[in-house]
Design goal:
Layout lengths: L2 H6 L13 H6 L1 H4 L12 E2 L7 E5 L6 H6 L3 H9 L15 H11 L8 H6 L2 E5 L19 H14 L3
Parallel strand pairs: 2-3
Antiparallel strand pairs: 1-3
């Protein structure tokens, strides 16, 4: 099963937790210590990861005040859930995603016209996260990265598809 088939099985009824991660997350509840915010849709990848020219690899999605405001709107949550297709442009127009993306787009795409840079970069750049669940601090989560089935899927995708590409 590839990463897209894996995340296609994601259902919002699981509280934004992938069904295959549920048992592990329950077992590791004490280790996680509430560091993961499961109010956020999972972010295993953002942007057109199937066709991106640049893929940035990160540990997990972070949380800040603007991103917390963003997930209060159903339409914006739908934008984030649509990211699981792997074909959507990077959601730079969402609060909490734009500031970070603008910094990366400016440094990675300096030759693109400034007025069009974010839009064009959003079609060429993607992010993959080892742990798909959002947190303010990754320090307490490093130990769970090797335990989550979703992390295994991300690692396999990196090794078998992104790195060779």
């Amino acid at each position: 099963m590839d990463i897209f088939q894996y995340w296609d099985r994601m259902k919002q009824t699981s509280g934004y937790k992938h069904p295959e991660d549920l048992v592990v997350l329950k077992e590791l509840e004490d280790d996680i210590k509430g560091d993961i915010n499961f109010d956020f849709p999972p972010g295993p990848y953002w942007g057109p990861i199937k066709s991106a020219k640049i893929v940035l690899c990160y540990a997990n999605p972070s949380i800040n005040s603007p991103s917390i405001d963003t997930i209060k709107c159903k339409e914006k949550v739908d934008v984030l859930m649509n990211q699981l297709k792997g074909t959507e442009k990077y959601p730079y127009n969402l609060n909490g995603w734009g500031k970070w993306f603008k910094q990366k787009a400016n440094s990675l795409f300096p030759d693109i016209d400034k007025e069009q840079r974010l839009e064009q970069a959003s079609h060429q750049m993607a992010v993959i996260n080892l742990i798909p669940y959002a947190s303010e601090n990754m320090d307490n989560l490093a130990s769970i990265a090797n335990c989550l089935p979703s992390s295994w899927v991300a690692q396999r995708f990196l090794r078998e598809h992104l790195i060779p590409k």
